[in-house]
Design a protein that fits this description.
The chain is an all-alpha fold. It is built from 13 helices and no strands. It has helices spanning 2-24, 30-51, 61-88, 91-98, 100-111, 119-135, 148-172, 177-196, 210-237, 240-245, 250-262, 268-284, 286-291.
Amino acid sequence: MKLYLLLVLIQVLFGVNFSASKLILFKLDPFMWSNIRFLSAGLILGAFSFILRRPHPKLDRHFWLPLIPLSLLGMGLGQSLFLFGLKQTTSVNTAVISTFIPLLTVLIVILRGQEKMNVTKFLGIFISFIGVVGLRKIEDFSLSSATMMGDLFVLGGCLSFAIYLVFAKKFIVRYDNLWTTSYMFIVSGLFFLAFNFNRLHLLNGIEFTQIELGCMIYSIIGATVLTYFLNNIALSKLESSNVSLFVYIQPIIAFFFGWYFLGEKVDLRILVCSVLIFQGIYLSNLKIFKSN
């Protein structure tokens, strides 16, 4: 149960980050900010791991061969595809397509024989999916030729993260979580640096307000270091499909913060869809909830 509360906390941290990142992107383009975010997070977490004297993994081929592709799938490549897609499609299409992350994760683990699917779990995933799609206003979704390429990029980003959730599990439990997450951030930061190296001069002269600097610190520490580190802990203990399903809580958190801080309207549709999401998550994890 503590792990499930941890997953809720992760989604809260991610949910708040939508507003924080929006302010940052007025000054920095998404690729440059992703570069700064991941590289900073990796160095901070690495220093923290060193101070705590965490057991350092042996940096041999058994460590690097899985770590590099997993880093790119979960962070570098996944973020790149998502950002490319977001630029070429609508925000509504991006939001709706992003709901496929848990479904793709479940499909992969079943095809690999990694997890077993039962009626209750399937029903829970389906109910949560309906709730999220309703929340994201599926009626505004438009699959036109103008957005097709962007939609495919976003879907590719979702598939990339789903593959990461499935294949990272065995690797994460093998090494120290702090060091592993740190190296994943650094590899992803270097991946973005390859695209941004000739553009670093654009950072000269950019001035940030105290609020923007606060948002940057939060995004790096709260929404990157903490979230990925805690997510890897949950992933090492729980099934990949269960971890991915909690992504569906993010839009509820976004709506709550919009209502509480920005005075946005919360209607009956939002309330009904939120109930469906939580009901679906409960059904999907019914066996574990009963055992506790």
